[in-house]
Design a protein that fits this description.
By secondary structure, this protein is of the alpha+beta class. It folds into two domains: about 130 residues, Immunoglobulin-like (Sandwich); about 250 residues, Aminopeptidase. Helix content is about 25%, strand content about 25%. The chain contains eight helices and 22 strands. It has an eight-stranded mixed beta sheet with strand order 15-16-18-17-19-22-20-21, with helices on both faces. Strands 1-4-5-7-13-12 form a six-stranded mixed beta sheet, with no helix packed on it. The protein has a six-stranded antiparallel beta sheet with strand order 2-3-6-14-10-11, with no helix packed on it. Strand 12 and strand 13 form a beta hairpin. Helix 2 crosses helix 8 and helix 6 runs antiparallel to helix 8. The chain is globular. It starts with a strand and ends with a helix.
Length: about 400
């Protein structure tokens, strides 16, 4: 078995590449002329723990109408220090595109839980196609949205990432109630960005819908650019570490926290904080710690959960619950954004996870149009919950 280690491989009938914006793969091994094993790169944290292999995105040039078999391997990982068999399973088949814009789920695949391995059997319609874990949303997509928005939103650059990319903060509307929203804290979770785009487009069309919206549209632009999973360049999870200060190694968190603190220091109020994420098979809403802020935010949480469940496509796999004080008790650097902002400022901060597997209200797996539509639904729901 011959092993290839470059980011571009001429493998008899196919050319496989991932050296583009958001692309990711580890190495490729040839099994036969039309059969390859593609190792997922994955990422680990600053302590070389919690390996995640939730993201892959690559281009294949291969003769049209000729069968191609690609095995996705190197799947196992670890989450919150607990080993797992990986995020690529029979519940989460890849998406495929023939124009790098329109994506559908691959239907012909075999999942072997023993190795584990995801075998894709493809007869491509054209000589070039792309494969990804979920429909990609790169920094280029965000730039296109920003251009479309024009003067309909205010943009501030509140800091720089490790790789010196700007960290944007957008403001839409000027109503009396204020919501702060976080999208794309984890680079693989592209559904978060598609929802964010749907929300932004809706709010601009509605002139802010009677509220002030402060939006972090891309919390980890470095990770998105390099095709990362959930850690910044130094291995720090941007939805952990909210109980630590790391200006040099976590400038993203530092800048976002500082923007919130600066807002509060002027005497202005924050009525709602929300961070949207993706997971494989779970869907839920997590409220602020201490049982909803010792009861202070339970009415808001219950109202939000009910509205989401009854008026949107949100299909929870568990009832509303409230966060613990940390994801890993006794270990520093393990607080999420909601845990950290509640501890430091007492804010009503929520985290929502949306599944990428089959969504029961759709009867299928979500795609781009579904995420965009939910973005509009989310804006309406937040407004109703915050201004009952």
């Amino acid at each position: 078995m011959r092993v290839y280690n470059e980011s571009m491989h001429l493998l008899c009938l196919a050319l496989i590449t991932w050296n583009f914006d958001g692309g990711s793969l580890g190495r490729v091994e040839k099994v036969a002329d039309n059969h390859w094993r593609a190792h997922l790169a994955g990422e680990s944290d600053q302590d070389a723990r919690n390996r995640q292999a939730n993201w892959y995105y690559f281009q294949v040039d291969s003769p049209a109408n000729q069968p191609v078999t690609i095995d996705l391997v190197s799947l196992p990982g670890e989450y919150n220090y607990k080993p797992n068999r990986g995020a690529v399973t029979a519940d989460t088949p890849p998406v495929i595109s023939y124009d790098n814009k329109t994506w559908t789920h691959i239907e012909s695949f075999e999942y072997d839980a023993a190795e584990p391995r995801m075998r894709l059997k493809i007869i491509p319609k054209t000589k070039r196609f792309w494969i990804a874990h979920v429909p990609p949303y790169t920094n280029r997509h965000l730039a296109a949205l920003r251009k479309w928005a024009g003067n309909s939103l205010k943009e501030e650059v509140i800091g720089q990432t490790v790789d010196k990319r700007p960290i944007p903060l957008w403001t839409i509307g000027d109503g009396p109630k204020t919501a702060w929203l976080f999208f794309r804290q984890h680079s693989w979770e592209t559904g978060s960005s598609w929802v964010g785009e749907g929300l932004v487009r809706f709010l601009i069309a509605k002139g802010g819908a009677g509220m002030t919206w402060k939006i972090f549209p891309m919390c980890d632009p470095d990770g998105v650019a390099r095709g990362g999973v959930r850690f910044n360049k130094f291995g720090f999870d941007l939805n952990r570490n909210w109980d630590t200060n790391g200006v040099e190694k976590m400038p993203e968190i530092t800048a976002q926290r500082a923007a919130i603190k600066a807002w509060l220091n002027t005497g202005r109020k924050i009525d709602f904080v929300f961070s949207l994420h993706n997971t494989e098979t779970s869907e839920y809403l997590e409220g602020p710690p201490e049982n909803g802020g010792a009861g202070k935010f339970t009415a808001l949480a219950e109202r939000l959960f009910t509205l989401l469940e009854t008026e949107t496509s949100f299909a929870p796999t568990r009832k509303l619950f409230y966060s613990e004080s940390s994801t890993t008790a006794g270990l520093p650097g393990r607080m999420t954004v909601s845990q950290g902002l509640y501890k430091e400022f007492g804010l009503p901060a929520f985290i929502m996870e949306q599944r990428i597997s089959t969504q029961p209200k759709y009867g299928r797996k979500p795609l781009i149009a579904d995420r965009l539509r939910f973005g509009a639904e989310l804006a309406v729901t937040i407004h109703k919950a915050v201004t009952p």
